[in-house]
Write a structure and sequence with these properties.
4-stranded antiparallel beta sheet; 8-stranded mixed beta sheet; Glutamine Phosphoribosylpyrophosphate, subunit 1, domain 1; 306 residues; alpha+beta; 34% helix; single chain
């Protein structure tokens, strides 16, 4: 038994803003990342390899708020965050505020596997990247016209538009179970459009945006980062499964549909357990998501009706 689930962000996603052509592009992007990660599992590689591959493919796709498609800060920069966790060893790595790393999830994994630390930030993370042979990319690599237009709408005070209604759509993540029963999770993001003061959300925070434990499940989250941090969402779901004996579906639903709304938090999660059960739940209008279990066809969705 092995399987993979991915997400490309949850949040305000009105159907009126989703043209047929745009929807086809999003579905194709999700399908490509799912296929890439699943091929890794099918070839007998680890869940860690699978989530790394799937997230890197999403980071390379400008449709999503990670890597090449990252949103801009208020002063016009791209500050990227990512994390990864191995459910077998419970080793983890994370980076935040990096500005020259093409695939932040790859650097997060390097922190986990080749340093004595879990979490590195900004210039220090990039200095470590150089010691590991990473090639830094110019800031222009992350510039996309669509993300710049979003920033301009924030700067211009476009009526009704705020960082919370325009930006968290697109954060990416993956969770996987390999054929030896090992779990892994990874998450990557460009953060919040128009963010200030080097704000950090939940995506790189182990236990909030990412968590994996072979004794329970693997989780990757997307949404209002401040609330996900306060609720320790990813770890909360794993704890409910491990200590309260809740099914994965019940634990995910309780946190996403009860705990988060109580704190005025919007978003969703993807999760997988050691038996191959997958849960993909959200309390927003939509969440880009896809999954596949061995022996079954891929599942791709955007809205609840999918």
């Amino acid at each position: 038994m092995f399987g993979l689930a991915i997400h490309g962000g949850a949040g305000t996603l009105p159907r009126a803003d989703m043209t047929p052509d745009r929807e086809r592009l999003y579905r194709a992007g999700l399908a490509a990342a799912l296929e890439g990660g699943f091929a890794v599992l099918k070839g007998g590689a680890t869940s860690l390899e699978a989530v790394t591959r799937a997230v890197m493919l999403l980071e390379d796709n400008p449709l999503f708020n990670a890597g090449h498609g990252a949103v801009f800060t208020l002063d016009g920069r791209n500050e990227l965050d990512a994390s990864i966790m191995d459910g077998t060893t419970r080793m983890a790595g994370a980076v935040c505020g990096v500005t020259h790393i093409k695939n932040p999830v790859e650097l997060a994994r390097a922190v986990m596997e080749h340093s004595e630390y879990v979490f590195l930030s900004g210039c220090g993370a990039e200095e470590f990247a150089l010691t590991r042979g990473f090639a830094l990319v110019p800031r222009s690599y992350f510039h996309t016209a669509e993300r710049w237009r979003q920033l301009e709408r924030i700067r211009d005070g476009d009526g009704g538009v705020s960082a919370l209604t325009i930006s968290h759509v697109g954060t990416v993540g993956a969770v996987a179970l390999d054929d030896r029963g090992r779990l892994a999770a990874a998450t990557s993001t460009g953060g919040m459009t128009g963010k200030r003061y080097q704000r950090i959300g939940d995506s790189p925070v182990i236990g909030a945006g990412t968590y994996a434990d072979d004794r329970a499940c693997a989780v990757s989250a997307t949404g209002h980062g401040e609330v996900f941090i306060r609720a320790a969402v990813a770890h909360e779901i794993c704890a409910r499964v491990r200590f309260a004996g809740q099914s994965l579906a019940r634990a995910v639903a309780a946190v996403v549909l009860q705990e988060l709304p109580a704190l005025h938090g919007e978003g969703g999660v993807i999760a997988i357990d050691p038996k191959g059960n997958i849960a993909m739940e959200f309390n927003s209008e939509g969440m880009f998501r896809a999954s596949r279990i061995c022996g079954e066809e891929p599942q791709i969705g955007i809205y609840r009706s999918d």
